[in-house]
Amino acid sequence: MKSGISLIAVHKAFGTEEACITYLKAARWPEGVRCIACDSEKVSEFVTNETEREITDDHGNVVDTKRVPARHLFQCNAEGCRFQFSATSGTIFDKSHLPLSTWFQAVAILVNAKKSISAKQMERDLGVNYRTAWFLNHRIREAMQSEAGLFGGEIEIDGTDVGGRYDKRRKRAKYDEQPVMGMLPRSTEQQPSQVDAFLVPKETAVVVDKALAERVAPSAELYTDDHAAYRHLATFRLKIPTQAASALPRKIRRG
Q1: How many beta carbons lie within 10 A of that of residue 250, not counting itself?
Q2: Which of 135, 133, 107, 111 has the alpha carbon at shortest distance from 122?
Q3: Per-residue pLDDT tens for 79-112?
Protein backbone atom coordinates (compact mmCIF):
# COMPACT_ATOMS: atom_id res chain seq x y z
CA MET A 1 0.00 0.00 0.00
CA LYS A 2 1.49 3.32 -1.00
CA SER A 3 1.70 6.46 1.11
CA GLY A 4 -1.34 8.72 0.99
CA ILE A 5 -3.92 6.05 0.19
CA SER A 6 -7.31 6.82 1.72
CA LEU A 7 -9.03 4.63 4.29
CA ILE A 8 -12.09 4.46 2.03
CA ALA A 9 -9.95 3.03 -0.77
CA VAL A 10 -8.38 0.54 1.64
CA HIS A 11 -11.80 -0.60 2.83
CA LYS A 12 -13.02 -1.06 -0.73
CA ALA A 13 -9.92 -2.95 -1.84
CA PHE A 14 -9.35 -5.02 1.31
CA GLY A 15 -12.74 -5.22 2.97
CA THR A 16 -12.87 -9.02 2.98
CA GLU A 17 -10.52 -11.76 4.15
CA GLU A 18 -10.41 -13.21 0.63
CA ALA A 19 -9.27 -9.92 -0.87
CA CYS A 20 -6.52 -9.54 1.74
CA ILE A 21 -5.26 -13.10 1.22
CA THR A 22 -5.25 -12.65 -2.56
CA TYR A 23 -3.13 -9.52 -2.13
CA LEU A 24 -0.69 -11.25 0.24
CA LYS A 25 -0.34 -14.23 -2.11
CA ALA A 26 0.51 -11.99 -5.04
CA ALA A 27 2.94 -9.91 -2.97
CA ARG A 28 4.78 -12.87 -1.43
CA TRP A 29 4.76 -15.25 -4.37
CA PRO A 30 4.41 -13.30 -7.65
CA GLU A 31 5.50 -16.39 -9.60
CA GLY A 32 3.30 -18.85 -7.70
CA VAL A 33 3.10 -20.11 -4.13
CA ARG A 34 6.18 -21.97 -2.88
CA CYS A 35 6.65 -23.88 0.36
CA ILE A 36 8.19 -21.67 3.03
CA ALA A 37 9.92 -24.70 4.57
CA CYS A 38 11.60 -26.39 1.57
CA ASP A 39 10.88 -23.91 -1.28
CA SER A 40 9.06 -26.57 -3.31
CA GLU A 41 6.57 -25.40 -5.92
CA LYS A 42 4.40 -28.49 -5.35
CA VAL A 43 1.84 -26.78 -3.15
CA SER A 44 -1.89 -27.40 -2.84
CA GLU A 45 -4.42 -24.90 -1.51
CA PHE A 46 -7.47 -25.58 0.64
CA VAL A 47 -9.90 -23.93 3.08
CA THR A 48 -10.85 -25.48 6.42
CA ASN A 49 -14.43 -25.51 7.68
CA GLU A 50 -15.63 -23.10 10.31
CA THR A 51 -16.05 -24.90 13.65
CA GLU A 52 -16.81 -24.25 17.32
CA ARG A 53 -14.48 -25.00 20.21
CA GLU A 54 -15.75 -25.78 23.69
CA ILE A 55 -14.20 -23.96 26.63
CA THR A 56 -14.21 -25.94 29.88
CA ASP A 57 -13.42 -25.14 33.50
CA ASP A 58 -10.98 -27.00 35.77
CA HIS A 59 -13.59 -29.69 36.37
CA GLY A 60 -14.23 -30.39 32.70
CA ASN A 61 -17.58 -28.61 32.54
CA VAL A 62 -18.35 -26.68 29.36
CA VAL A 63 -18.68 -23.02 30.27
CA ASP A 64 -18.61 -21.42 26.83
CA THR A 65 -18.12 -22.03 23.13
CA LYS A 66 -15.85 -20.13 20.78
CA ARG A 67 -16.18 -19.82 17.03
CA VAL A 68 -13.13 -20.97 15.08
CA PRO A 69 -13.26 -19.29 11.68
CA ALA A 70 -12.39 -21.04 8.44
CA ARG A 71 -8.70 -20.91 7.52
CA HIS A 72 -7.09 -20.50 4.12
CA LEU A 73 -4.10 -22.87 4.09
CA PHE A 74 -1.43 -24.30 1.81
CA GLN A 75 0.22 -27.71 2.03
CA CYS A 76 3.52 -28.71 0.54
CA ASN A 77 3.24 -31.96 -1.43
CA ALA A 78 6.98 -32.57 -1.73
CA GLU A 79 8.11 -35.97 -0.49
CA GLY A 80 9.25 -35.76 3.13
CA CYS A 81 7.91 -32.25 3.73
CA ARG A 82 4.08 -31.99 3.82
CA PHE A 83 4.39 -28.67 5.64
CA GLN A 84 1.21 -26.63 6.15
CA PHE A 85 1.31 -22.82 6.15
CA SER A 86 -0.77 -19.78 5.32
CA ALA A 87 -0.28 -16.51 3.46
CA THR A 88 0.34 -14.81 6.82
CA SER A 89 2.96 -17.29 8.10
CA GLY A 90 6.18 -15.49 8.99
CA THR A 91 4.61 -12.02 8.61
CA ILE A 92 3.41 -9.44 11.15
CA PHE A 93 -0.09 -10.89 10.72
CA ASP A 94 0.99 -14.36 11.85
CA LYS A 95 -0.74 -15.94 14.88
CA SER A 96 -3.22 -13.08 15.16
CA HIS A 97 -6.96 -13.58 15.58
CA LEU A 98 -7.74 -10.15 14.14
CA PRO A 99 -9.27 -9.99 10.64
CA LEU A 100 -6.77 -9.07 7.96
CA SER A 101 -9.05 -6.19 6.93
CA THR A 102 -8.45 -4.64 10.38
CA TRP A 103 -4.70 -5.08 9.98
CA PHE A 104 -4.70 -3.44 6.57
CA GLN A 105 -6.70 -0.47 7.84
CA ALA A 106 -4.27 -0.09 10.76
CA VAL A 107 -1.34 -0.05 8.31
CA ALA A 108 -3.07 2.63 6.24
CA ILE A 109 -3.73 4.75 9.34
CA LEU A 110 -0.05 4.65 10.33
CA VAL A 111 1.16 5.32 6.78
CA ASN A 112 -1.15 8.32 6.46
CA ALA A 113 -0.19 9.81 9.85
CA LYS A 114 2.32 12.59 9.24
CA LYS A 115 3.66 12.47 12.82
CA SER A 116 2.71 8.90 13.71
CA ILE A 117 -0.39 8.09 15.76
CA SER A 118 -1.13 7.04 19.32
CA ALA A 119 -2.71 3.75 20.35
CA LYS A 120 -5.66 5.71 21.77
CA GLN A 121 -6.32 7.32 18.39
CA MET A 122 -6.09 3.95 16.64
CA GLU A 123 -8.48 2.53 19.24
CA ARG A 124 -11.06 5.17 18.25
CA ASP A 125 -10.46 4.91 14.50
CA LEU A 126 -10.71 1.11 14.33
CA GLY A 127 -13.28 0.54 17.06
CA VAL A 128 -11.07 -1.96 18.92
CA ASN A 129 -10.00 -2.06 22.56
CA TYR A 130 -6.86 -0.29 23.73
CA ARG A 131 -4.74 -3.44 24.15
CA THR A 132 -5.49 -4.46 20.55
CA ALA A 133 -4.71 -0.96 19.27
CA TRP A 134 -1.42 -0.90 21.22
CA PHE A 135 -0.45 -4.31 19.81
CA LEU A 136 -1.24 -3.25 16.23
CA ASN A 137 0.63 0.03 16.63
CA HIS A 138 3.82 -1.53 17.94
CA ARG A 139 3.83 -4.59 15.66
CA ILE A 140 3.44 -2.42 12.54
CA ARG A 141 6.06 0.10 13.68
CA GLU A 142 8.54 -2.71 14.28
CA ALA A 143 7.91 -4.09 10.80
CA MET A 144 8.50 -0.66 9.26
CA GLN A 145 12.07 -0.54 10.54
CA SER A 146 14.82 -0.80 7.95
CA GLU A 147 15.99 -4.36 7.29
CA ALA A 148 19.56 -3.13 7.04
CA GLY A 149 19.30 -1.78 10.57
CA LEU A 150 22.07 0.80 10.00
CA PHE A 151 21.44 4.53 10.27
CA GLY A 152 23.21 6.77 7.79
CA GLY A 153 23.51 10.45 7.05
CA GLU A 154 23.51 12.91 9.95
CA ILE A 155 22.93 11.14 13.26
CA GLU A 156 22.34 12.75 16.65
CA ILE A 157 23.41 10.55 19.57
CA ASP A 158 23.16 11.12 23.30
CA GLY A 159 22.48 9.37 26.57
CA THR A 160 20.61 9.97 29.79
CA ASP A 161 19.75 8.31 33.07
CA VAL A 162 16.11 7.36 33.59
CA GLY A 163 14.64 6.63 36.97
CA GLY A 164 11.04 6.76 38.13
CA ARG A 165 9.53 7.16 41.57
CA TYR A 166 11.22 4.96 44.16
CA ASP A 167 9.46 1.65 44.75
CA LYS A 168 10.78 -0.50 47.60
CA ARG A 169 9.56 -3.65 45.82
CA ARG A 170 12.15 -3.18 43.10
CA LYS A 171 15.52 -4.79 43.59
CA ARG A 172 17.62 -1.65 43.28
CA ALA A 173 19.04 1.05 45.47
CA LYS A 174 16.88 4.04 46.28
CA TYR A 175 18.69 6.39 43.90
CA ASP A 176 19.61 3.94 41.12
CA GLU A 177 18.80 5.06 37.58
CA GLN A 178 18.90 3.19 34.27
CA PRO A 179 21.30 4.56 31.59
CA VAL A 180 19.65 4.89 28.18
CA MET A 181 21.23 5.78 24.83
CA GLY A 182 19.36 7.22 21.88
CA MET A 183 20.11 7.79 18.20
CA LEU A 184 18.16 10.07 15.89
CA PRO A 185 18.87 10.29 12.14
CA ARG A 186 18.00 13.80 10.98
CA SER A 187 15.04 13.77 8.61
CA THR A 188 15.33 14.35 4.87
CA GLU A 189 12.79 14.70 2.06
CA GLN A 190 13.14 10.99 1.34
CA GLN A 191 13.27 9.66 4.90
CA PRO A 192 11.53 10.90 8.07
CA SER A 193 13.51 10.91 11.30
CA GLN A 194 13.44 7.79 13.48
CA VAL A 195 14.49 7.29 17.07
CA ASP A 196 16.30 4.22 18.36
CA ALA A 197 16.47 4.24 22.17
CA PHE A 198 17.91 1.31 24.10
CA LEU A 199 19.19 0.37 27.57
CA VAL A 200 22.93 0.27 28.21
CA PRO A 201 24.87 -0.85 31.31
CA LYS A 202 26.78 2.45 31.42
CA GLU A 203 27.52 5.34 29.09
CA THR A 204 31.17 4.64 28.30
CA ALA A 205 33.34 4.74 25.18
CA VAL A 206 33.31 0.93 24.89
CA VAL A 207 29.50 0.82 25.10
CA VAL A 208 29.19 3.67 22.58
CA ASP A 209 31.52 1.93 20.12
CA LYS A 210 29.50 -1.29 20.34
CA ALA A 211 26.20 0.55 19.85
CA LEU A 212 27.54 2.40 16.81
CA ALA A 213 28.93 -0.79 15.25
CA GLU A 214 25.50 -2.43 15.53
CA ARG A 215 23.33 0.51 14.45
CA VAL A 216 25.22 3.18 12.47
CA ALA A 217 26.88 3.09 9.04
CA PRO A 218 30.65 3.83 8.98
CA SER A 219 30.21 6.95 6.83
CA ALA A 220 27.58 8.56 9.11
CA GLU A 221 28.22 12.06 10.45
CA LEU A 222 27.62 12.22 14.19
CA TYR A 223 26.34 15.09 16.31
CA THR A 224 26.63 14.89 20.08
CA ASP A 225 27.72 16.76 23.23
CA ASP A 226 30.97 16.88 25.21
CA HIS A 227 30.36 13.77 27.28
CA ALA A 228 33.59 11.83 27.81
CA ALA A 229 32.12 8.70 26.21
CA TYR A 230 31.98 10.45 22.81
CA ARG A 231 35.26 12.41 22.71
CA HIS A 232 37.18 9.64 20.94
CA LEU A 233 34.76 9.55 18.00
CA ALA A 234 36.58 12.27 16.06
CA THR A 235 39.16 9.63 15.06
CA PHE A 236 37.04 6.51 15.60
CA ARG A 237 37.04 3.84 12.92
CA LEU A 238 34.30 1.20 12.78
CA LYS A 239 35.78 -2.28 13.10
CA ILE A 240 33.88 -4.77 10.96
CA PRO A 241 35.69 -8.06 10.23
CA THR A 242 34.97 -7.93 6.48
CA GLN A 243 35.60 -4.20 6.09
CA ALA A 244 38.13 -3.32 8.78
CA ALA A 245 40.79 -2.14 6.36
CA SER A 246 38.51 0.10 4.31
CA ALA A 247 36.06 1.36 6.92
CA LEU A 248 35.53 5.11 6.68
CA PRO A 249 36.21 7.33 9.71
CA ARG A 250 33.18 8.96 11.26
CA LYS A 251 33.01 12.72 11.45
CA ILE A 252 31.82 14.23 14.71
CA ARG A 253 30.54 17.67 15.59
CA ARG A 254 29.75 19.02 19.00
CA GLY A 255 26.34 20.41 19.91
Answers
A1: 20
A2: 133
A3: 889 999 999 998 889 888 889 999 999 999 988 8
Among residues 51, 49, 71, 53, the alpha carbon closest in space to that of 62 is found at 53
Alpha helix segments (H runs only) across the chain: 7-13, 17-28, 100-112, 119-126, 130-143, 205-215
Are 14 and 23 a contacting pair, CB within 8 Å? yes
pTM, rounded to two decimals:
0.55
Q: Which of 68, 32, 38, 39 is nearest to 51 (CA)?
A: 68
DSSP 228: G
Burial class (CB in 10 A: 0-12, 13-18, 19+), 207: middle
Alpha-carbon span 237 to 218, nearest angstrom: 8
